[in-house]
Write a structure and sequence with these properties.
It contains 15 helices and 30 strands. The termini are far apart. The protein is α/β, with parallel strands linked by helices.
């Protein structure tokens, strides 16, 4: 088969209508062969063709008459010297890092490893067995697609509500999703799925990893899978197991149709991406792609012992961000998902690992500089999980402008407060108002904080209030995996219970968490299923549970339906009142005279919080007055934003508190909107004589209203002023 020199760019397999150009970067290789397969069941390649040219360390060649649908892999020759960081093995078929589709998944066998499994010399040994019968294969893809005037919603950050969802688990048990579409991209785009998200008030769906990933061998051997998908093998190819379509080409189009449909309903699509490590693991892992293509270039190796990997991720390896070609791989992948797949943003898993240029974390690393200057990527939503497992890797509040962050301090503080920790009151107030201590100093806004109480990693909200201890035995690791839960709810019972008092307390705590989340300044993120009271039976690390433990259950009990309705009511409150969606931090000072502030903190006596109140561990109750007419912001048309003033009363103590309400003039009164103790109570004028009975462990939201005669008088005055101007 004749091959032409082709071009070194773009990398990967590119079909031009007449043939396919293949290009692969490898700095230390001595030979690269392109291997073509006739079918996914083939045990050997049909053709093995050396790439004829090398330009700037990129090996390339062009094959005329090759079309989309062609299966291929590479064999790469070079030194096998693990001590020096080189692990070339031409007996292994390798997956193209730029593969746009996966034509065959890995089938585990000892031949998938570059060394002899079980050898006394371990990974220093060399395995000469051919793995062509079980290696993963790439497939040439045609990117053509009719987007039909697709328009990105571009929801402003301060109006964004994120819903973290698993692309499979969300619909696997949904009765209104056609059975053949459950667990798929197409299932996410059905009317039933979209209706739920729209009724909840979601504006952005954050999908857990959809890049093609590998299931660890030990999981497969034990009948499990890597359900969460944080084990990426290909940064361009959508995961086939989430596609209703049977072919890789059709799977790519199915993903695009999903994005197009969600956009039509005003829903943004954010991808959870894992660029910090790959599924090849440590030096004892398999040789699937990057390790065999150029291990020393693609991975961070221990400087004085290059046999071993720098592991800042806890997953065995870390991508080498110092190498320009690795940076290019990540940037090309990100641009592909924005330009070709039309996604609206990314959440970067263990993003601190991407900032490590040498050893210490550098927040001005090349990765961030490149994204900041990129005309495409600088315009999408960028979310960092701002930590990794290396030294100095906890970087909450330290990412550059243009980035938002999963605020782990918010999560921890909100949990501590509602547990009844009086020492958390001061920090609770800071987190509730947008965490200015973390983001204000760098000129960022409250929406730099992605607020969450629960996420995929840990207990669901229902389990958070139901279990003090993890129950991860189903994972097969003797309950050693997952984080220890360090909060006790003092309920006395773990798991399901028939005790009505404990049940009511748990439901109230869920309402407290959800209401706090939506009324905090910043961007709220809901863990998918929390609104359905989803339980994993105490498992706080269900990464390998592709079953009913992880799949959302849509058959709701009356109690679960009641909580879902409460969640919808809370989101509607958040949507309707700009006072909860500020783009700037509270000033905490006088704006219109000394008697009015945009925010005022109150103790239960109705007076302003004192230093003694803030630092008293006995104080577990506080109120905050948010001035609606001092939002100090304008809308898109430049008009001043004005809203009703709100009073939030929060009591995390186990005792009821009679909260003295701020005194009001005769024409104003308090109108309770929500109370987590009385979630079904209809709003009405508060009859209390200047005080509010705040039940133990509850929140109340009171709106400041004016009497009708006073409102009519104000309207008459406004019309009179307009007439005089005319």
């Amino acid at each position: 088969m004749r091959i032409w020199p082709g071009r070194p760019s773009p990398l990967g397999a590119t079909w031009d209508g007449s043939g396919v150009n293949f290009a692969l970067f490898s700095e230390h290789a001595t030979r690269v062969e392109l291997c073509l397969f006739d079918s996914a069941t083939a045990r050997k390649e049909a053709h093995c063709i050396p790439l004829p040219e090398q330009t700037d360390q990129v090996w390339h060649g062009y094959l005329p008459d090759i079309r989309p649908g062609q299966l291929y892999g590479f064999r790469v020759s070079g030194p096998y010297n693990p001590a020096a960081g080189h692990r070339f093995n031409p007996h292994k078929i390798l997956l193209d890092p730029y593969a746009k589709g996966i034509g065959r998944d890995v089938r585990w066998a000892d031949s998938m490893f570059g060394y002899e499994v079980g050898h006394a010399a371990q990974d220093l040994s060399f395995d000469a067995r051919d793995n062509a019968d079980c290696a993963p294969l790439a497939i040439v893809v045609n990117n053509a697609f009719s987007w039909q005037n697709d328009r990105l919603p571009k929801t402003p950050w301060h109006k964004t509500l994120i819903y973290e969802a698993h692309p499979r688990g969300f619909t696997m048990q949904h009765p209104d999703v056609p059975e053949h579409l459950r667990g798929t991209y197409a299932g996410l785009a059905t009317q039933a799925s979209i209706r739920h998200m729209k009724r909840l008030g979601v504006t952005a769906v954050e999908l857990m990893p959809v890049h093609h990933h590998v299931d660890d061998r030990h999981l497969v051997d034990n009948g499990r899978t890597n359900f969460w998908g944080y084990n990426t093998l290909s940064y361009f190819a959508p995961e086939m197991r989430y596609a209703a379509a049977k072919s890789p080409q059709a799977a790519v189009k199915e993903f695009k149709r999903m994005v197009r449909t969600l956009h039509r309903h005003g829903l943004e699509v954010i991808l959870d991406v894992v660029y910090n490590h790959t599924g090849e693991g440590s030096e004892f892992g398999p040789t699937l792609s990057l390790r065999g293509i150029d291990n020393a270039s693609y991975y961070r190796l221990v400087p004085n012992d290059r046999r071993h990997y720098m592991d800042f991720t806890g997953c065995g390896n870390t991508l080498n961000m110092v190498c320009p070609r690795v940076l290019q791989l990540i940037m090309d992948s990100l641009r592909y998902w924005v330009t070709e797949m039309h996604v609206d943003g990314f959440r970067f898993d263990l993003a601190a690992a991407l900032a490590r240029e040498l050893y210490e974390v550098d927040k001005l690393g090349a990765f961030f500089d490149i994204i900041h200057q990129d005309p495409v990527l600088s315009q999408v939503k960028l979310i960092a999980e701002p930590w990794d497992l290396g030294p100095g890797g906890y970087l909450v509040g330290n990412f550059p402008a243009g980035w938002t962050e999963w605020n782990g301090k918010y999560r921890d503080t909100i949990r501590r407060f509602w547990c009844g920790d009086g020492a958390a009151v001061s920090e609770f107030a800071t987190r509730l108002t947008g965490s200015s201590d973390l983001y204000g100093h760098s000129g960022r806004r409250p929406y730099a904080s992605i607020n969450f109480v629960t996420s995929h990693d840990g207990f669901s909200m229902h389990d958070l209030v139901s279990y003090n201890h993890k129950r991860n035995d189903a994972n097969g690791e003797q309950n050693r995996d997952g984080e220890q839960h360090n909060i006790s709810w003092n309920c006395g019972v773990e798991g399901p219970t028939d005790d009505p008092q404990i049940t009511e307390l748990r439901e109230r705590q869920k309402r407290n968490f959800f209401l706090t989340l939506l009324l905090s300044q910043g961007v709220p993120m809901i863990r998918g299923g929390d609104e359905l009271s989803h339980s994993q039976k105490g498992n706080n690390n269900a990464y390998c549970q592709d079953n009913e433990l992880s799949w959302l259950d849509w058959k709701l009990t009356p109690q679960q339906s009641e909580f879902l309705n409460f969640c919808r009511k809370v989101v509607l409150l958040w949507q309707q009142h700009p006072v909860f969606q500020r783009r700037h931090f509270f000033q905490g000072r006088s704006i219109r005279g000394t008697e009015v502030r945009d925010i005022t903190w109150l103790n239960p006596t109705g007076k302003e919080m004192t230093d003694a109140n803030w630092h008293s561990e006995l104080n577990r109750c506080l109120g905050v007055f948010l001035s609606g007419d001092l939002i100090d912001e304008v809308d898109e048309q430049g008009r001043q934003i004005v809203d009703s003033s709100m009073l939030l009363l929060m009591n995390s103590s186990p005792n009821d508190v009679t909260f003295t309400l701020p005194a009001l003039p005769d024409h104003e009164f308090w109108w309770p909107l929500l109370d987590t103790m009385r979630p079904n109570a209809k709003p009405s004028r508060w009859p209390g004589e200047g005080s509010y009975l705040l039940t133990a462990r509850s929140i109340a939201v009171l709106q400041l209203k004016q009497t009708w005669p006073h409102l009519l008088k104000q309207l008459a005055s406004r019309f009179s002023r307009k007439s005089r101007k005319v």
